[in-house]
Amino acid sequence: MSTPRSDILLDRMMTLHPKVIDLTLDRVWRLLERLDHPERHLPPVVHIAGTNGKGSTQAMIRAGLEATGATCHAYTSPHLVRFHERIRLAGELIDEHHLSRVLDECLEANGPDPITYFEITTVAGLKAFADTPADWTLLEVGLGGRLDATNVIDTPALTIITPVSLDHQQFLGDTLPQIAGEKAGIIKRGVPCVVGPQEEAALDVIEAQAERLGAPLLAYGQHWRVWEERGRLIYQDETGLRDLPLPNLRGPHQIINAGMAIAALRQMEQPDDALEAAVTRTDWPARMQRLSGHAYESLLPDGELWLDGGHNPAAGETLAKTLAELSDRPTVLICGMLNTKDIGGYLRPLRSAADTLYAVAIPDATATLPAEETAEQARAAGFDAKVTENVQDALQHIAQTVPRARVLICGSLYLAGAVLRDG
């Protein structure tokens, strides 16, 4: 089977800059100018930044809009299995021919000039969006916000900042206010901004930036609230209450993500049918996903198999709460993480949900933390931690020792992608 042309072009793009991440917008603006500014020819844009919940919130907004018959472009990262997942054109993943064409155009326009992989592929996504009619464009920030390659839209229809917490400190700053400042960089003059629950130090920064730019804030706890009550989702804003089903995405954190999506859809003047669809029709893999029908399930005949790609301390806390709400089975973790993450901060809250952890390296990831180091950190967090060659070996051992276990494969979207490719 021949290698898809898009894979060849994407491999070339990996060689155009010595760094994977080099935050600046100069190279992006240069390439956009050479392509006649596709970012100026998009359907109305909803731009989403934050530490956790960006992807789920975007997916809920898309489900709500599509239920009304609207068509949506959507940009997200990273992908799990194939790059095509990052670019959704009018509701459908970009096809191989279209992807190869826009990658070719971007490579030709860029020439030999340095540009990072994320920057040039983001421009390719914007070019594909500009070429294809749709009603809305949903843009998810890759890293930070202020200097992210997606932050090139002069006047989006709406911006959203999901909960901000510590992550990517080597690029965004060591403190919560510094990180919040980077996220708040997507706020634009006069453009409404939906803000999810924030620690006070982060909210102060976001509010100050919004005030400087005259951007109306729709902040959790001030302008809208959301909670679970008697098995229903209750959303409240200045127009009153909305009584809706619980999100079909699992976990108590999805209540908050649903609230942000609903607040956005309300601001976009969408009907109540869109609000219900946002919480009941969303599909977003590797977010506390039950792996039914996966090839690995046969290795665990009496157990349950789950997958989650969260990877920072806040994700560890929400995942622990989610596991606590599930039916009574012993929980075992299979964990692999990147060496850029706060593994101790991620694992410590999970110790309340599981005693045993199997550490693995992430296949084909150069930045993977070695399994031995993951196990060492897990032991420091209180786990009975074992090193194993791969996920399959861990599952076989768990099936023999804890046959009714709920097994959660976790720690990285890159590990989640490897598992999904094997399924």
TrEMBL record:
Residues 48-264 form the Mur ligase central domain. Pathway: Cofactor biosynthesis; tetrahydrofolate biosynthesis; 7,8-dihydrofolate from 2-amino-4-hydroxy-6-hydroxymethyl-7,8-dihydropteridine diphosphate and 4-aminobenzoate: step 2/2; Cofactor biosynthesis; tetrahydrofolylpolyglutamate biosynthesis. SUPFAM superfamilies: MurD-like peptide ligases, catalytic domain, MurD-like peptide ligases, peptide-binding domain. One of its GO terms (molecular function) is metal ion binding. GO terms for biological process: folic acid biosynthetic process; tetrahydrofolate biosynthetic process. Its cofactor is Mg(2+). Keywords: ATP-binding, Folate biosynthesis, Ligase, Magnesium, Metal-binding, Nucleotide-binding. It catalyses: 7,8-dihydropteroate + L-glutamate + ATP = 7,8-dihydrofolate + ADP + phosphate + H(+); (6R)-5,10-methylenetetrahydrofolyl-(gamma-L-Glu)(n) + L-glutamate + ATP = (6R)-5,10-methylenetetrahydrofolyl-(gamma-L-Glu)(n+1) + ADP + phosphate + H(+); (6S)-5,6,7,8-tetrahydrofolyl-(gamma-L-Glu)(n) + L-glutamate + ATP = (6S)-5,6,7,8-tetrahydrofolyl-(gamma-L-Glu)(n+1) + ADP + phosphate + H(+); 10-formyltetrahydrofolyl-(gamma-L-Glu)(n) + L-glutamate + ATP = 10-formyltetrahydrofolyl-(gamma-L-Glu)(n+1) + ADP + phosphate + H(+). It comes from the Bacteria. Pfam families: Mur_ligase_C, Mur_ligase_M. Residues 306-412 form the Mur ligase C-terminal domain. Its EC number is 6.3.2.12, 6.3.2.17. One of its GO terms (cellular component) is cytoplasm. It is an enzyme of class 6 (ligase). Belongs to the folylpolyglutamate synthase family. Functions in two distinct reactions of the de novo folate biosynthetic pathway. Catalyzes the addition of a glutamate residue to dihydropteroate (7,8-dihydropteroate or H2Pte) to form dihydrofolate (7,8-dihydrofolate monoglutamate or H2Pte-Glu). Also catalyzes successive additions of L-glutamate to tetrahydrofolate or 10-formyltetrahydrofolate or 5,10-methylenetetrahydrofolate, leading to folylpolyglutamate derivatives. This is Dihydrofolate synthase/folylpolyglutamate synthase. The lineage of its organism: Bacteria, Pseudomonadati, Pseudomonadota, Alphaproteobacteria, Rhodobacterales.
